[in-house]
Write a structure and sequence with these properties.
Helix content: 25-40%
Distance between the termini: 36 Å
Number of helices: 20
CATH architecture of the largest domain: 3-Layer(aba) Sandwich
Strand content: 15-25%
Shape: globular
CATH class of the largest domain: Alpha Beta
Number of strands: 26
Strand order of the largest sheet: 3-4-2-7-12-1-13
Length: 656
């Protein structure tokens, strides 16, 4: 049976402005405690009207926000809404993911479907889950603005000091708004959100990436370092180590030895087996031992006490030995689940886990980013490599002045800039140091610009963790990265096992580096989409620039070919060592090579490096400069060309 609904008929503008049906008319000013009456179940004949009404309202909302929706985009939204209707009616079961790009109407689609269902008096119920309470407030405000009465909307979260309060009597509210944390609370939270009038809600909508299980990892190396520091204290000044701290270190020693013993067993060719972390020392609580470790500056390990007695697995990933374990948190009973995740086009974890199915007829490439320019600098920018560079005074200033040069000389003074870096860790304040250094290099970090919503800061320094949290900086046209988040390999391995629901599985563990690259691309895409490129007209994203230092294999191609199709890739040309307007010899040569390749006739499909050197206009570069320039350009090839062995080969359009 075809589960997609008929989407061939569109409502006109007059039809899309239908008022709520009689059963809701006039109740928007009724007190929230007043019960509402709805039709028990929806007749099948009403379903196409539900999808079309939601679609028409959705297009109006997107256009009101300044987006001009292309026909391809409109058809994709219609298909998404039709699948929502099919799932709400029980015609489709499971967990299905839709990779709508950032800014393409994911949240609005959920709002408009919920509104249309209520407006037509279908009696269907739904739940929308979002990451932050502020997001829930925005969703609620949108629904009320469309005419949904407040008493039809339930809210559930745990942030007690937020102006948006959780509601009671949620089993009588057809629309439920819930934070991810509450949805991930396991079976115990189900009665608080999952039911409407005695039956499971008809549709669950999860906005952003679905993580259906908590997962943890701890490396044997981290445990050994902590144990080593304790041993040093005991040998030099034992009186400074409290009894609680000694008990804590004794416990993590037992955990470390358990992991290493299992790894030695596996090294002999034996199959992995489950291991159980020991119970806590007698008379101690997890909180007491955690505090003891924190007093010794070992806070990252404190969480291990919360999982005393847990079943785990010893695992080797690349050169790391550690313990991993997980706990399923999103109940399996939620089997009518739509996942709205823009990053599904690049994320490998969901594809390998099998937790989320992709609709085969839903397009992956709805928008073109042909007006966006991605400047790439081949530089190791993960936390460790970047931290080593950033907290060395000499190399930090070399890098920061590159950013300052971009801001001061390459970007218009009246346009906003989002700069991304790391959160403070172990006393290292990346944001404060970056701000001070930019100011030292002549950047006005306090400058403001005029935007459609008033005066706003020209430069926003944001930290990883905010990349999916807010759209308040979407007026900024430019994105600069000062460090790129890379997830830990053991952590990714634990999530892979968690999402596959198999602690002892070995399938796909060899692809953890690929998974890491895809998660890096996911984070970069989300961060870049906090800028103006999330807005679009007729299927083309608004202009913008991205300045990215990255050397992790595979990330750039995932980002440019899947997340940002059509983006222009060019080198981020570094300045000379004496910091001036002059390019380095390597950068200048790379630019000359790119210019020559772009000028070749269309029938020139390949050119050897030797012939390229002989043909290159201007002064002949030295061998070292020539080699470095080709390497630089290979990482950022000009459009339509790629380097293969000792030649440059044109990429044919039909083969791309």
């Amino acid at each position: 049976m075809n589960t997609a609904l008929d989407t061939s008929v569109h409502l006109n503008r007059q039809q899309s402005s239908l008022p709520l049906r009689d059963n809701l008319r006039g109740v928007s000013d009724v007190r929230e405690s007043t019960p509402l009456k709805f039709r028990k179940r929806v007749p099948a004949a009403a379903v196409p009207h539900l999808t079309r009404l939601a679609h028409s309202r959705l297009l109006e909302n997107l256009e009101r926000y300044g987006n001009a929706v292309s026909e391809t985009h409109s058809d994709a939204l219609m298909r998404l809404l039709a699948d929502m209707s099919a799932m709400a009616l029980g015609r489709r079961k499971g967990r299905y993911g839709y990779a709508l790009p950032c800014g393409a109407g994911k949240s609005q689609a959920a709002v408009c479907w919920a509104w249309a269902s209520l407006a037509l008096g279908t009696g269907l119920s739904c739940l929308i889950a979002s990451s932050r309470v502020d997001n829930l407030k925005e969703l609620r405000d949108e629904l009320i603005a469309l005419g949904v009465p407040p008493q039809a909307i339930g809210v559930l979260h745990s942030q007690l000091d937020h102006p948006l309060r959780s509601t009671e009597g949620n089993t009588e509210r057809p629309i439920m708004l819930v934070t991810h944390a509450r949805l991930q609370g396991g079976d115990k939270n189900l009665p608080q959100y999952a039911f409407y009038r005695g039956r499971k809600r008809d549709l669950f909508i999860y906005d952003e990436s679905l993580v259906s299980a908590d997962h943890w990892s701890v490396s044997a190396l981290a445990l050994s370092k902590a144990i080593g520091s304790a041993k040093e204290i005991l040998e030099t000044d034992p009186d400074t180590l409290s009894d609680d701290a000694q008990a804590a270190y004794g416990y993590i020693t037992d955990c470390r030895d358990l992991i290493l013993e299992e790894m030695r067993r596996q090294a002999k060719g034996q199959r992995p087996k489950r291991l159980t972390f020991p119970p806590l020392p007698y008379g101690y609580t997890a909180e007491e031992l955690s505090v003891a470790l924190e007093s010794e500056h070992q806070a990252p390990l404190g969480f291990i006490f919360q999982h005393a007695g847990s079943t785990a697995r010893a695992l080797r990933v690349q050169s790391l030995n550690g313990g991993v374990w997980f706990n399923v948190t999103v109940p399996e009973e939620l089997d009518s689940l739509i996942v709205l995740d823009a990053s599904l086009v690049v994320r490998l974890l969901p594809a390998l886990s099998g937790q989320i199915k992709r609709s085969p007829s839903f397009p992956d490439k709805l928008l073109s980013y042909e007006n966006v320019v991605l400047h790439h600098m081949p530089l190791k920018a993960g936390r460790k490599s970047f931290s080593d560079m950033f907290w060395n005074t000499r190399t930090r200033h070399q890098f920061v002045r590159e950013i300052a040069h971009v801001i001061n000389h390459k970007l218009p003074a009246g346009e906003g800039i989002n700069v991304w870096t790391f959160k403070t860790r172990t006393g290292k304040d990346y944001v404060g140091q970056l701000r001070a250094d930019l100011k030292r290099h002549g950047v006005d970090v306090a400058a403001t610009i005029d935007t459609p919503v008033g005066s706003r800061p020209r430069i926003n320094i944001l930290t990883w963790g905010q990349e999916t949290a807010t759209n308040q900086y979407a007026y900024a046209r430019h994105t600069v990265f000062a460090g790129v988040i890379h997830r830990d390999l053991l952590d990714l391995a634990s999530e892979l096992l968690a999402e596959t629901r198999s602690l002892l599985a070995s399938d796909n563990l060899g692809r953890v580096k690929d998974i890491q690259a895809s998660e890096v691309a996911h984070a970069l895409y989300q961060a870049a989409s906090r800028s103006t490129i999330r807005h679009h007209r007729d299927g083309v994203a608004e202009p913008g620039t991205i300045w990215l230092p990255i050397k992790t294999p595979g990330v750039l191609s995932l980002l440019a070919e899947h997340a940002l199709p059509g983006v222009q890739r060019v080198p981020w040309l570094r300045m000379a060592d004496d910091w001036g307007e002059r390019e380095t010899a390597t950068a200048a040569t790379a630019r000359r090579i790119a210019s020559l390749l772009s000028s070749l006739p269309a029938d020139a499909t390949e050119i050897s490096a030797r012939r390229l050197l002989d043909t290159l206009p201007g002064e002949r570069p030295t061998p070292d400069v020539w080699k470095a320039a080709q390497s630089l350009l290979a990482a950022n090839p000009p459009p339509g060309w790629e380097r293969r062995a000792r030649s440059w080969v044109r990429i044919l359009a039909d083969a791309a």
